[in-house]
Amino acid sequence: MAGTPATGTGGLYRITVTAHNGVGRDAVQNFYVPVQQAPAITSAADTTFTVGRPGTFTVTDTGFGAPALSESGALPAGLAFNAATGVLSGTPAAGSAGAYNLIFAASNGVGPDAAQTFTLTVLTPQAHFVQALYRDELGRSGDLSSPSDAGFWVQVLSNGIANQAMVAAAIEHSPEARVHLVAFWYQSYLGRQALNGEDFGLVNLLLQGQTEGQVLSDILGSTEFFNRAQALIGSGTPPQREVAALYRLLLNRAASPGEVAAWVNAMSQPGSPGVARVFLDSSEFRTRLFTSYYNALVHRPPDIVGLKALVFSNFDADVVRLGLEASGEFFANG
Fold first, then answer.
1. Are residues 94 and 146 in the same domain?
2. Do 162 and 98 belong to one domain?
3. Cα separation, 147 vs 135, whole angstroms
4. b/e code 215-248 from CB counts within 10 Å (16+ = b)
5. How many separate domains does the chain show?
6. Contacts of 45 (CB under 8 A, 6+ apart)
7. Residue 305 and residue 294 share a domain
8. Is the dihedral of CA 261, 266, 267, 272 positive or negative?
9. 46 - beta bridge partners?
């Protein structure tokens, strides 16, 4: 037996060797071949905890034999590293917010030890709240240390200049958030990015106070959406394909033949924003949309009574989203 084991093949292999010459019984021998592998740390090189809230992070590794883990560098008060399990856990103490530079090492006596430079960030609850809003509404984490970016809102909250609801509303209704939302609509419903500032008109409508339902219905009632529906749905007349595309993209299901026929008969003309608006105002769509808000923002399914109240209310989507983002539950779990 000879050769060079490939990278990542470390482990214990059972081999069976059989000798046969047609005389008597075959000779069989089982034995094990250990393939040693130098250690490597495979988990991310950074994580974030929040003051006053329990958290965990698991350091993972590879290698054969099994590597032993260790950690060096000062940990914030309230956190500890368990070398046997590779779990960093605990609740950061008050006053421990900041960045901590750590080194995780893995050793198994095969080749050089693995060492990973690791950044542990501990946020204040206010910084955690602002970062969660930025990720949900702007699609980015924001610079929590910059007074011209997310850091501004952290200071506003920390100094009591504004409350959670005011900060959430300011971020959600900002031009950047509206551009991010319209870009999502373009990709989701038109299957492409907005080009050469063509989205600015829709963004301005939102900034001027039109509801998200009103503006989205313009996209769904456009000639471009009607034409995309023809390619998206494989059969049917053009109006039937439009209706089927609305069912697929808004309700995440196929329409029954009866549903398609009813809509086509009721349509005054294909590609009508009014048809899209009825879909957007339907209890089925609002149930799906608001359930997704609960899962994404507070990381749990909605309670049935509360969900029904929202679905059958007159609240537009951004009002419901803002209500969740301004809640104590989002502040704690967002």
1. no
2. no
3. 18
4. bbbbbbbbeebbebbeeebeebeebbbbbbbbbe
5. 3
6. 116, 117, 118, 119
7. yes
8. negative
9. 119
Element (H, E) at 7: none
How many helices (H) and strands (E) the chain has is answered by 14, 11
Domain region containing 111: 40-123
Q: Is position 155 within any domain?
A: yes
260 and 301 fall within a common domain: yes
Q: Could you tell me if residue 235 is inside a domain?
A: yes
The tokens of 216 are what? 């989205």
Which ranges of 138-222 does DSSP label H, i.e. alpha helix? 150-158, 164-172, 175-185, 200-207, 212-220
What is the C-alpha to C-alpha distance for residues 307 and 113, in angstroms, rounded to an integer?
53
Same domain flag for 201 and 304? yes
Q: Is the pTM of this model over 0.90?
A: no
SS3 labels along 206-234: HHCCCCHHHHHHHHHCCHHHHHHHHHHCC
DSSP annotation of 126 reads: H
**Residue 93: what are its φ and ψ, rounded to 5°?**
-75, 160
Is the CB of residue 284 less than 8 Å from the CB of residue 250? no
The pLDDT tens digits along the chain (334 residues) read 788 888 777 788 898 888 988 888 988 888 887 878 889 999 999 999 999 999 999 999 999 888 999 999 999 999 999 999 999 999 999 999 999 999 999 999 998 999 999 999 999 999 999 999 999 999 999 999 999 999 999 999 999 999 999 999 999 999 999 999 999 999 999 999 999 999 999 999 999 999 999 999 999 999 999 999 999 999 999 999 999 999 999 999 999 999 999 999 888 665 677 889 999 999 999 999 999 999 999 999 999 999 999 999 999 999 999 999 999 999 998 8
Is 212 part of any domain?
yes
For residues 24 and 216, give the distance between their C-alpha atoms in angstroms, rounded to a whole number. Answer: 82
* Residue 118 within a domain: yes
